[in-house]
Design brief:
By secondary structure, the chain is an alpha/beta fold. It has one domain: TIM Barrel (Alpha-Beta Barrel), CATH 3.20.20. The longest helix has 18 residues. The structure holds 2-phosphoglycolic acid (PGA). The site of 2-phosphoglycolic acid has 13 residues, from strand 8.
Length: 255
């Protein structure tokens, strides 16, 4: 069973390079004692390079928010896995709902990206989640099944893969899914992974929750059986709430 937790901050299109650097420097200077929590900063591309330098001696990881599946080529506006790797990136968020719904990314593209990230030695954080309409028409389980099936197609090993369940209607809306909804969805995800791979592999996979996580609900959400950490947008942009959430997770892990 998963003994450690992951808390990733998805900055989206916020913070310039200087702002990002200052933020991470301030965070590192807090010298938090959080051995079992893996903290990942996911800044916009332009801030990656600067932050890599600060994180060299710190116990925190760097993540990107997207990538292309090709190594290089005539793909204006895109970035490849080896370019990210050269910036010290360890994780890449893929299939985030804003990529799926605002930029029309398909499961097929997301799958190519997952494989490219794994081939490049980095770790994908594969985001899945239903829209409000899909939830209302009881399609949540099917949506999760298909996003996992297609997103992980041809992926033989899960050890380097992180899954993030993010109900689209709870992202950036202030509306969190209920404890029951999160528990049910995470259990579905774990069981789907178990069917695709094995029970042991599913149990060892980190399944993060994302969608309006904040200091006020972190303890309750992290208390849910199949929740192994968080992917955080809004609350990761300021030191205090981000720190509070991480400390809460760490405290809960220590029992
Ligand atoms: P939020 O975003 O925490 O602001 O809801 C989560 C995400 O988009 O990953």
């Amino acid at each position: 069973m998963n003994k450690h937790a992951i808390v990733a901050g998805n900055w989206k299109m916020y913070k310039t390079s200087v702002e990002g650097r200052n933020f991470v420097e301030d965070f590192v200077n807090l010298m938090l004692n959080i051995d079992d929590v893996e903290v990942i900063f996911c800044p916009p591309f332009s801030a990656l390079f600067n932050i890599d330098v600060i994180l060299k001696d710190a116990p925190y990881k760097l993540g990107a928010q997207n990538c292309h599946w090709e190594n290089e080529g005539a793909f204006t506006g895109e970035i490849s896995v080896n370019m990210l790797e050269s910036c010290g990136v360890d994780y890449v968020i893929l299939g985030h709902s804003e990529r799926r719904h605002v930029f029309n990314e398909t499961d097929e593209w997301i799958n190519k990206k997952v494989k490219s990230v794994l081939n490049g030695g980095l770790k994908p954080i594969l985001c899945i989640g239903e829209t409000l309409d899909q939830r209302k028409s009881n399609e949540t389980k099917d949506v999760l099944f298909h996003q996992l099936k297609e997103g992980l197609s041809g992926v033989e090993k899960l050890d380097e893969v992180v899954i993030a369940y993010e109900p689209v209607w709870a992202i950036g809306t202030g509306e969190t899914a209920t404890i029951e909804q999160v528990g049910e969805a995470h259990k579905w995800v774990r069981n789907i992974l178990s069917d695709f791979y094995s029970r042991d592999i599913a149990d060892d996979t980190s399944i993060l929750y994302g969608g309006s996580v904040k200091p006020e609900n972190a303890e309750e959400l992290f208390g849910i059986k199949d929740v192994n950490g968080f992917l955080i947008g809004g609350a990761s942009l300021k030191i205090d709430p981000f720190k509070e959430i991480i400390l809460t997770v760490n405290k809960k892990l220590k029992g």
